[in-house]
């Protein structure tokens, strides 16, 4: 299977990425000539990581009948000092909200996403040390 997008320049540092499923704007910060009208490319990478894992987990929790009221995924990443700057350390926090958690099933769902299903997570592991944690908020 092949994925394809098309990136169109919209002036200055603003671009529109068009995929079969939808469009997203990409821009730089104002201090480097952008207008701040879109996500930064590296933030898009972290968004892709969280989105990929989140989709896995929501699907798995439904199948396991271990639904939660809500969950959020926070991704924090450190950039290298030298150019080209890339993420060398990435920490993913899975934050679950609700009560009477089925912790064994939630932890299994997260582990399956992290170790087996999330292709974006696997891509990140090729260039960064990835760590994860789970937090329950009742």
TrEMBL record:
Domain of life the protein comes from: Bacteria
Protein name: Putative redox protein
Gene3D superfamilies tied to this protein: 3.30.300.20
Native source organism of the sequence: Lutibacter oricola
InterPro entries documented for this protein: KH_dom-like_a/b, OsmC/Ohr_fam, OsmC/Ohrsf
Pfam family, any one: OsmC
């Amino acid at each position: 299977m092949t994925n394809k997008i098309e990136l169109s320049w919209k002036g200055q540092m603003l671009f529109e990425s068009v995929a079969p499923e939808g469009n997203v704007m990409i821009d730089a910060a104002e201090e480097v000539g952008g207008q701040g009208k879109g996500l930064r490319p590296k933030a898009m990478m972290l968004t892709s990581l969280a989105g990929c894992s989140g989709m896995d987990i929501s699907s798995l929790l439904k199948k396991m009948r271990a639904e939660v009221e809500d969950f959020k995924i926070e991704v924090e990443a450190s950039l290298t000092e030298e150019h080209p700057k890339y993420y060398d350390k990435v920490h993913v926090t899975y934050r679950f909200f609700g009560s009477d958690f089925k912790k064994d099933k939630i932890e299994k769902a997260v582990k399956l996403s992290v170790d087996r299903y999330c292709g974006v997570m696997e891509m990140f592991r090729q260039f960064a040390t990835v760590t994860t944690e789970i937090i329950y908020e009742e």
